[in-house]
Amino acid sequence: MGRDVDESSRKVWNAQIRGATELEISDRLESLRPKLERHFNVRLSDCEGPYFLRYDKGGFHVPHRDARPGSPPEIRRRAVSVVIFLNPSVQDPAIGNGFAGGELVLYGLIDDPKWQKFGFPVTATPGLLIAYQSYQMHEIKPVEFGERFTIVAWFLRDPS
Question: What is the pTM of this model?
């Protein structure tokens, strides 16, 4: 496992999971491509990922966009971001395998200027998959206790 180096904006571990598990997740993500293309009205090509992430107590990611103007070309091609939660958000630390805090918060979901800075938190449920446009502002709030496990991936815009 490697830790992201810029802990002022992001504190997370990236697990290297290879073999059958990675292939199975990749295949399942690929099967979603047609639905994502229809839902987001975009033609998609490759899928970047999956990446397996672990946020320990204090782990976070400041508000950001997965793709934005000025990013390198390979980042600007990101069209749809996907997060899959692997363990639950809980209120009691005695409940094993759960975590508190660590909410994925999505901003700008309502197309009205007065709502652009309002964040909608997502409650983690094992197996829940959230897909959103990669230019959508979002953040991961600090984990208060436990460990937050997720899989992330990005579907890339078809350049043709």
Answer: 0.91
Of residues 48, 144, 55, 146, the one with CA closest to residue 97: 146
Name every residue whose Cβ is closer than 8 Å to that of residue 44 and which is 6 or more positions away in sequence: 33, 36, 37, 79, 80, 155, 156, 157, 158
Q: Which residues contact 113 (CB under 8 A, 6 or more apart)?
A: none
Residue 147: phi, psi to the nearest 5?
-125, 135
Mind spelling out the 3-state secondary structure of 46-63?
EEEEEEEEEECCCCEEEE
Per-residue confidence at 5, pLDDT binned at 50, 70, 90? Answer: low
Q: Tell me, rounded to whole angstroms, the distance of Cα 13 from its chain centroid.
A: 14
Closest by CA to 130, choosing from 112, 105, 111, 108, is 105
> Number of structural domains, the chain?
1
CATH at 127: 2.60.120.620
Show the domain range for 108. Answer: 2-157
Residue with tokens 């197996």: 127
Q: Please state, in angstroms and rounded to a whole number, the distance separating the CA atoms of residues 102 and 86.
A: 13
Tokens matching residue 139:
């953040």
Express each pLDDT in 96-118 by its tens digit. 889 999 999 999 999 899 998 89
CA-closest candidate to residue 79, choices 155, 153, 160: 155
